[in-house]
Amino acid sequence: METQTQKQVLNLNGLKMVKEARSSFENGVFLINHYNREILKADFNKNPIMLYADLDGSKTSNKQIYRAFELLGMTKEIGRKIAINTHEGEKWNYSGANE
Fold first, then answer.
1. pTM (2 decimals)?
2. Over the stretch 43-72, which tens digit does the pLDDT of each residue have?
3. Which residue in 69, 78, 82, 97 could disulfide with 92, CB within 3.0 to 4.6 Å?
């Protein structure tokens, strides 16, 4: 019998990654880093799952975050409402759009 976390891990294996994005899953915590910056963290050890996202740092990071939301069974709109936004600074400040 698979646990909820094991089922989720199996679903995350198909996650398509954007350039320079890396994912890992250790000790019940799923992470995505983009250019060495943590953009998504899902802690499956918590009930309900705690979700943190660095939203609006760059459009490419958002694309990656939204793909992860889909694999977690939610739309980008629901994910944006549920996730704790960890972004600091202006919108798109990692993309160079504000320079």
1. 0.80
2. 999 988 899 999 999 999 999 999 999 988
3. 97
Domain boundaries, the chain: 4-85
Contact 34, 61 (CB under 8 A): yes
What is the chain written as a DSSP string? ---HHHHHHHHHTT----TTEEEEEETTEEEEEETTEEEEEEETTSSSPEEEE-TTS-HHHHHHHHHHHHHTT--HHHHHHHSEE---SSTTTTTTTT-
| Spatial distance between the Cα atoms of 69 and 75, rounded to a whole number of angstroms | 6
φ, ψ for residue 38 (rounded to 5)? Answer: -70, 115
